[in-house]
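$ run holo --ligand "pyridoxal-5'-phosphate" --emit tokens
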Amino acid sequence: MRPIASRISVMSGEGALSVFARAQELERQGRSIIHLELGEPDFHPAGLVNEELKHAVDRGKDRYCAVQGVPALRDAISDYLQRTRNIRVTADNIVIAPGCKIALFMAMMALIEPGDEILYPDPGFPGFPSIALGFGGVPVPFVLAERNQLQPDPEEIAARITQRTKIMITNSPGNPTGTVYSDAVQRRIAELAVKHDLIVLSDEIYARILYRDGYRSMLSYPGMEERTVIIDGFSKSFAMTGWRLGYAVAPLRLVPALNMIAVNTFTCVAEFTQYAAIEALVDRDRATASMVAEFAKRREQFIRDLNRVPGFRCLSPEGAFYAWVNIADTGSSAEEVCRIMLEEAGVAAIPGAAFGISGKDFVRFSFASSMDNLRAAIERIQRVSSAWRRAPALHEK
Ligand SMILES: Cc1ncc(COP(=O)(O)O)c(C=O)c1O
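-- output --
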């Protein structure tokens, strides 16, 4: 048989999904597993969103619809971004996609020529380098180091820019570290983007899941409006992962290219979900705020408890719902620590290398799970922690 295209072999899967598969296998064998591996809110959309969904189906909103997304939803996103992020974009700048990942994929497909270099955060969402490679791009990591409080180092980024650099991917708040990029870092990144004529793909999917005040989109910095593509959607902020609903906010010159990809792939996003999503954005139940308040409580408890596990240390994330734990002091590899936690304690978490080479001494836990689950997970981990040696320099915070 003829071979499968080489672009597939250069792409990679997601560590979370393979840990999830093993955890499910153990569950089928009757084991109790606490799932802290997936990046998925343990909430469901607000009741009114579901009501709107039913209403839209009843109204016959189940047809092919506008390729770019229904105008009413694009208008609602434009209002929402102005209200929550203080940025002004019009419905014409917005393209609806079946998930943020597809919006990211479309933006990269529209922009990358073989050999183009794409700067991206390491550790970071595995899709960033994988999709770039799939389009013949050359992903170039910039490191989120503990010594910089897991912030990007703009000077390192500047040093990595070459004639071939075309795109810089930013992700604040970020997966897997929960880092909210500081204003100083973003300002400098924007200056570099303008100076070197780069396009910034700003993945803002966690922008509403914040434990501090004040969020600034990359698009709001001087000179950035014409060179920023925001990637966002409904999966995390509105607990709608399975709805597959995301969007790109792009400069007008890029929109026809994104529409061209939509026409040639998914045609349009399910119409009834788009009408229901308007209700999610309006959020009359204040569902996002109550979900984030709950995440904030869990964050406080879970980060404190993780720092008491022998050999573990982690910073408190300013956004998203992940604990990014340095396990170097356990004396074991992250893979071994995760194996012990899953196989012997029934706690599923992800070895950090799944997020890039800089993650090799880390483990990612999602705290989008109930307080009781998080407490039970810590008890289980404490019980098996003697399997890794208690390190001399244990950090307790
Ligand atoms: C940074 C980041 N971007 C994109 C996605 C994918 O979002 P969606 O489920 O809407 O495709 C995720 C999901 O984990 C993510 O963490």
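-- notes --
The radius of gyration is 21 Å.
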